[in-house]
Amino acid sequence: LKQVFNKDKTFRPKRKFEPGTQRFELHKRAQASLNSGVDLKAAVQLPSGEDQNDWVAVHVVDFFNRINLIYGTICEFCTERTCPVMSGGPKYEYRWQDDLKYKKPTALPAPQYMNLLMDWIEVQINNEDIFPTSVGKCKEEVI
C-alpha cells in the first residue's frame, strides 16, 4: 500500500474545496449523484441557478483526482522497461511537447510521459487565471 501512495510515483494529494463555499456544496452534490446510481447524464447536468464554469471546474478537479488515484495503483507495473512508449494501442503513439524542455513532439517512456502530463494538469488546475478559487470568477473563454 505504501507504493500506491508514494508521491514520488506520481500520486498527488487531492485538491480540496473549502467547506462552506459554493464549490464545496457543488462537489458534495456531484459526489452524491455519482454514488446514488443516478442516470449519468442527469448527474452532470448543471443544477438550476449554478454557474456553469464553477460546475465544470468541480468536475475537472474530481476527474483529475480519480485518474490520479487510478494511475497511482498501476504505475508500479508500467516501468520504462515494460512500457518504453506511451501508446494507445499499436496504431497510436503519444509524444510530449511542452515548448519548454521539449520543443518538438518527443517519444518518451510511458511513466515519464505520465509524470509530465500529471504535473502539467496539476499546474493548470492550480492556475488561478484558469481555475480561480473565488466562486463565479472563471473566465468565459476557458470553458
Automatic annotation (TrEMBL):
Q: Which Gene3D superfamilies match?
A: MOB kinase activator
SUPFAM superfamilies of this UniProt entry? Mob1/phocein
- State where Zn(2+) binds: C78, C83
GO molecular function annotation: kinase activity
Q: Amino-acid biosynthesis among the record's keywords?
A: no
InterPro entries to which the protein is assigned, alphabetical = MOB_kinase_act_fam, MOB_kinase_act_sf
UniProt keywords (A-Z) are:
Kinase, Metal-binding, Transferase, Zinc
The name under which this protein is listed is MOB3B kinase
Q: What is the taxonomic lineage of the source species?
A: Eukaryota, Metazoa, Chordata, Craniata, Vertebrata
Could you tell me the gene encoding this protein?
Answer: Mob3b
